[in-house]
Amino acid sequence: MSAIVTYDTFEPGKTMGEAVLLLDDSHARSWQKIFGDTASSGANDAAEAAGLLVAMMMRAYLAVVTPRPPGNVHARQRFSLHALPRRGEAVRTVIRCDGKEIKRERRYVELLAQGTGDDGRVLYEGRLSLIWAA
Question: Which SUPFAM superfamilies did the record assign (predicted)?
């Protein structure tokens, strides 16, 4: 097991790692169990694909930035959708430390997550603002 990721681990500008997740039918079915599987409920549309990308971004973050100390707070998130993924496409997400600072005695970490499709086109960019526990 690797050492717990602490505030000191984060280096602004440094890539922390990447995760590749396949947007397959099982992911879509899991999403549709929550939101519905008919066209009138939004199945197989752009909103569903965007929602799946947000979930994939979070899974990539959880896979790359690990093990995490207990007590972190996900303070804010911004997400920009650039293109929709295709069913069956591998989505590669790179997680980079975009900055860190101490404010009011709390350790804030800013991460950038960028997801690209099979052909290298940018699908999304996400910014995660976290209050880091250790």
Answer: Thioesterase/thiol ester dehydrase-isomerase
pTM above 0.85, yes or no: yes
Distance CA 92, CA 118 (A): 8
Whole-angstrom Cα distance, residue 41 to residue 104?
Answer: 44
Taking only the tens place, the pLDDT of each residue in 45-91 is 677 778 888 999 999 999 999 999 999 999 999 999 999 888 889 99
In a domain, 20, yes or no: yes
CATH number, domain at 50? 3.10.129.10
Beta strands 15-22 and 90-103 are antiparallel
Supply the range of the domain harboring residue 52: 7-132
Distance CA 27, CA 78 (A): 22
Q: Does residue 60 form part of some domain?
A: yes
Residue 84's identity, in one-letter code, is L
Q: How far apart are CA 130 and CA 45, in angstroms?
A: 31
**56 found inside a domain:** yes
> 11 in a domain, yes or no?
yes
- Give the count of domains, the chain: 1
The token duo for 27 is 């992911």
pLDDT of 86 reads 86
